[in-house]
Amino acid sequence: MANGTYSVTPSHAGYTFNPSSLSVTVSGGNISTGLNFAATTLTFNVSGTISPATSGSGATVTLGGAAAGTTTADGAGNYTFTGLPNGAYTVTPNRTGYTFNPSTQTATVSGANVTGLNFTATAQTFSISGTISPVAGGSGTAVTLSGAAGATITADSSGNYSFSGLANGTYAVTPSKAGYTFNPVVQSVTVSLANVTAVNFTATATAQTFNISGTISPTTGGSGATVTLSGAASGTTMASSSGSYTFAGLANGIYTVTPSNTGYTFSPGSQNVTISGNNVTGLNFAAAAQVPHSAILSWIASTSTVGGYNIYRSSVSTMAVRM
Length: 323
Description:
This protein has 323 residues and is mainly β. The protein has three helices and 30 strands.
């Protein structure tokens, strides 16, 4: 090289140099020192978002390939891997109780950052199921779920029930059906990354009781009337001021209901009724006030000695028979 001033600049794909160039002057001799450079590998980022934020927040994101690493998505579901050289990478999110779409993605870093490597997180759901036996008690039983979520369903004809789409959490399962008690009364269930089965109950029939009720009208005759029950059970009650009465706690069977009140007659005088799995209402009576009557009798007394007179009702007036 002839004497003169020169500029020396290094370059290499994927690297930066410090200094980026040097100026040197050749003046009657070789130059072999002082023209040194430090090369630094260029690095880039891979970044993206896991949505929704409630599901992506706290997710673990793993990097594999040309370099390896792990990071945690922030509260908004964002993640970033920094300081990466050019190369091919795989990015895989993970969070307990969630699935991701896609499950993993590949990215190639080639002289630039890679952004928008996004994922969608979906909470995993599970089920709680069981059977209520025997079938007669379980079929049609209402089953209520409470706790981390709430719902009510009806057991099928075999007594089976199932709650689906449940997130991890603690739940209470309670069956109910008129005329039955259940053992246990309620069960606590914890869902933790798996379906819960065989949450079973036993139904026991209880003795059902029913009512007989009605009204005695008008209230002047019904109020305070005594009402007597006989038949499969017996009892007496008093009609209210409005003439209403009720017999409660009655088993299935045949009964007779009879009202009474001094100075009144009733229509009908009594009623027969059959209880068969339901209350009996509208067993009504009509009260009629009794009207006092009198008769005035007169006749010509006998001139003979008599022991008495017989009096008879007749359609012909003035009739007496002497004894």
